[in-house]
């Protein structure tokens, strides 16, 4: 073998070995420093300072922080964490760097406001975020909708929600639903139909897959709550008529109280309990349900919702 | 394969010392004057315009300046290491002697790495002088600044080898652009790996491949931590040292393989 060939063989082998070694070491470093990049937020939490330090490349930096916010929420949500301390600062930094990044406001409304483990449990911070967004993007009706949504769902501030929806309805090209929501808020505040209307609007108007899946899961949960309420009313009526609870749904069909076997929004049949209560068969696939959980059921850690 | 062929010989040392001398002759170390002015200015000014963050500013500014000055030197000296020798035709004289091409590359690397180490040493003195000025005494936690400086030197080793690799086949201007781009991408390497982790399909493969191939400078940057007097885990020191050594060796191997095949006629 010539000397030059020997050099090629030795250095090629060394290169491949080093490449493999560097990948292994990087994996170790990643395990060791999980979330280390996000710790920067603890050091430089002032969005204004960061904007100045970005030397004009604030758009690019906003994209980096936005990606970090999504990763942070995703990993915490997956762990079933009950504290999302960095979510608000990450979103505030992102939107200060790029006040027109609308998806960050939408994310904030959907994942900063709800109670843990489904969100950060910080509705006030979420409202501040939306107000900041409205100041910078006054013609974006979605921001008014987001704020009204948080006030309605998380703070039960129905008057405040109606006021924000009304403001949003005056924005040119606003979704017609805003005016409807503003009008119906006083009349139907707190009822299930109102909640369904709001989640439907989110489901139909969002472009974000995560927000879309979240809205779909809430709509399914509302459907289950309604189904269970109605079915339990029927088993109650059956018990009044016969003196005992039905052993199966076919007994309800036999006396004309029910047509067909009822199924949940995922297509599974409902389970009828001996005491007349109705439960879903796979509660893990139906997060957010208020009714229909089997006795002794403990909800698992939240998981990523399937795209709908 | 003869052991003699792969045993480092005296030519590497000669090439390294010549590279170091040449860098000094090129007035590279003049940057120390700018650095000294920056540090003394910051140390004096920060005490007058802010409260409670004097040490923080001196460490942050000092270490950032060390890192940036060294990176610029590594890139701009590194891009000329091979091309200048070809341009001046001194490479032919060197290679006509009993010097192998890989020895030339390795020697050049050690020469520039030595220049950067000396440069960093003097800058480190400047950082500690600034700290002494604002605090009037050293604290135990200031020892972590030394670790941050060590990591910065590791970063220089990687940048030097990458620049050497790029300059072994590309023009000086393009080498500088590529090296600077890799420095920026490498600074966001952890974000890139995080991004790769949430993608799917072909994008995931491409992003993961790129994320593991580009140098990882994120883990080498502990400036914010040491400025807040936070300790650096021993494991991180160990892993970073091993990573920098392995990555630099990989880049040198790539440079040698390209340079071995390069037609110099």
Give a verbal description of the structure.
The complex is a heterodimer of chains A (308) and B (265). The radius of gyration of chain A is 26 Å and the shape is flat. Chain A is built from 13 helices and two strands. The longest helix of chain A is centred in the last third of the chain and has 34 residues, at 209-242. In chain A, helix 5 (87-97) packs parallel to helix 7 (123-136) and helix 10 (177-188) runs antiparallel to helix 11. In chain A, strand 1 (271-272) and strand 2 form a beta hairpin. Chain A has two domains: 38-208, Serine Threonine Protein Phosphatase 5, Tetratricopeptide repeat, CATH 1.25.40; 214-285. The relative contact order of chain A is 0.07. Chain A starts with a helix and ends in a 29-residue tail after the last strand. Chain A has a two-stranded antiparallel sheet with strand order 1-2. In chain A, 61% of the residues lie in helices and 1% in strands. The model of chain A is unreliable at 304-308 (pLDDT under 50). By secondary structure, chain A is mostly helical. Chain B is mainly α. Chain B has one domain. Chain B is 79% helix and 0% strand. Chain B has 13 helices and no strands. In chain B, helix 3 (31-49) runs parallel beside helix 7, helix 4 (54-78) packs parallel to helix 8 and helix 8 (143-167) runs antiparallel to helix 9. The longest helix of chain B has 35 residues, at 101-135. Chain B is globular, with a radius of gyration of 20 Å. The model of chain B is unreliable at 1-5 (pLDDT under 50). Chain A binds chain B through residues 1, 3-4, 6-12, 14-15, 18-19, 21-23, 25-26, 28-30, 32-33, 36-37, 39-40, 43-44, 64, 67-68, 70-71, 74, and chain B through 1, 5-6, 100-102, 188, 190-191, 193-195, 197-198, 212, 216, 218-219, 224-225, 227-228, 233, 235-236, 239-240, 242-243, 246-247, 249-250, 253-254, 256-257, 260.
């Amino acid at each position: 073998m010539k000397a030059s060939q020997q050099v090629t063989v030795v250095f090629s082998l060394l290169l491949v070995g080093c490449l493999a070694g560097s990948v292994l070491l990087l994996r170790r470093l990643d395990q060791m420093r999980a979330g280390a990049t996000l710790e920067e937020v603890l050091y430089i939490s002032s969005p204004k300072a960061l904007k100045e330090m970005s030397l004009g490349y604030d758009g690019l930096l906003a994209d980096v922080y936005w990606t970090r916010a999504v990763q942070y929420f995703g990993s915490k949500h997956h762990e079933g964490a009950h504290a999302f301390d960095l979510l608000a600062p990450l979103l505030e930094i992102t939107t200060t760097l790029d006040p027109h990044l609308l998806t960050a406001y939408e994310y904030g409304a959907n994942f900063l406001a709800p109670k843990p483990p489904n969100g950060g449990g910080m509705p006030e911070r979420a409202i501040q975020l939306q107000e900041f967004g409205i100041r910078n993007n006054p013609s974006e009706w979605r921001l008014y909708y987001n704020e009204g949504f948080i006030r309605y769902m998380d703070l039960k501030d129905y008057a405040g929600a109606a006021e924000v929806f009304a403001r949003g309805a005056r924005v040119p090209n606003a979704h017609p639903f805003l005016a409807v929501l503003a009008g119906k808020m006083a009349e139907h505040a707190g009822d299930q139909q109102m909640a369904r209307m709001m989640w439907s609007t989110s489901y139909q108007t969002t472009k974000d897959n995560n927000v879309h899946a979240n809205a779909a899961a809430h709509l399914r949960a509302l459907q289950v709550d309604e189904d269970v309420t109605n079915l339990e009313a029927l088993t109650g009526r059956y018990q009044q008529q016969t003196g005992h609870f039905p052993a199966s749904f076919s007994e309800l069909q036999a006396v004309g109280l029910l047509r067909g076997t009822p199924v949940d929004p995922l297509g599974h049949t409902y389970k009828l309990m001996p005491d007349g209560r109705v439960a879903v068969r796979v509660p893990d696939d139906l997060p957010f349900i208020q009714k229909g959980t089997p006795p002794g059921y403990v909800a698992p850690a939240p998981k990523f919702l399937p795209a709908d | 394969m003869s052991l003699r062929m792969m045993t480092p010989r005296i030519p590497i040392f000669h090439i390294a010392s010549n590279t170091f001398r040449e860098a000094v002759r090129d007035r590279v170390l003049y940057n120390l004057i700018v650095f000294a002015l920056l540090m003394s200015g910051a140390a004096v000014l920060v005490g007058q315009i802010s409260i409670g963050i004097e040490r923080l500013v001196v460490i942050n500014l000092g270490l950032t300046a060390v890192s940036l000055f060294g990176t610029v030197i590594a890139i701009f000296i590194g891009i000329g290491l091979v091309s200048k020798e070809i341009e001046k035709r001194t490479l032919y004289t060197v290679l006509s002697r009993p010097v192998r091409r890989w020895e030339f590359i390795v020697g050049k690397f050690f020469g520039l790495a030595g220049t950067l180490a000396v440069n960093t040493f003097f800058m480190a003195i400047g950082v500690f002088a600034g700290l002494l000025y604002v605090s009037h005494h050293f604290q135990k936690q200031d020892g972590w600044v030394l670790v941050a400086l060590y990591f910065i030197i590791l970063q220089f080793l990687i940048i030097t080898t990458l620049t050497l690799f790029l300059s072994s086949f590309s023009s000086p201007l393009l080498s500088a652009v590529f090296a600077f781009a890799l420095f920026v991408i490498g600074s966001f390497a952890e974000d890139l790996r995080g991004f790769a982790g949430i993608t799917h399909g072909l994008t995931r493969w491409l992003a993961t491949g790129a994320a593991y191939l580009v140098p990882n400078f994120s883990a080498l940057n502990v400036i914010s931590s040491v400025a807040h007097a936070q300790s650096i885990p021993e494991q991180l020191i160990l892993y970073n040292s091993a990573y920098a050594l392995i990555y630099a060796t990989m880049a040198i191997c790539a440079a040698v393989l390209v340079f071995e095949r390069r037609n110099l006629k």
